[in-house]
Amino acid sequence: MLDKLKKDLSSEFKMKDLVEAKKVLGMEIERDRKGGKVSLMQKGYLKKVIQKFNINNGRKSVITQLAPHF
Prior knowledge:
elongated, alpha+beta
């Protein structure tokens, strides 16, 4: 089904198959196919913000989940 969609789209638009995306708009994409989960991370952006504002002491990591319909 995916191959047919790619073929149909490529007949209408100029496109390349770039395989599976690992990063888009500066966000890293991580997939857990068995668990049916996709994670978007902004580690690079956050590192830049932390360095820019010199925020190093006492930082904590937090996981924020979206509702399934997002």
